[in-house]
Amino acid sequence: xxxxxxxxxxxxxxxxxxxYVVFSNATLxxxxxxxxxxxxxxxxxxxxxxxxxxRYGRAFLEAIQNWESNNxxxxxx
Length: 77
Known about the structure:
By secondary structure, the chain is an all-alpha fold. The chain is 70% helix and 0% strand. The chain has helices at residues 2-15, 19-22, 25-34, 39-42, 50-71.
């Protein structure tokens, strides 16, 4: 969740918008629980539609993959 919040803040700052415009806290929480691995799964996250999936999907999927690579191999969950 914290990795997703950091990415959201980075994207929001780059776009000059409040963080919640990128994704809400509830969407980030659902994303952290579901941990989508592809765009199809990403669209199943509450609060993610076609537009935001196209705009932010790759970055968030990459962040999830990086987190899993760094944490799940050590047994963290």
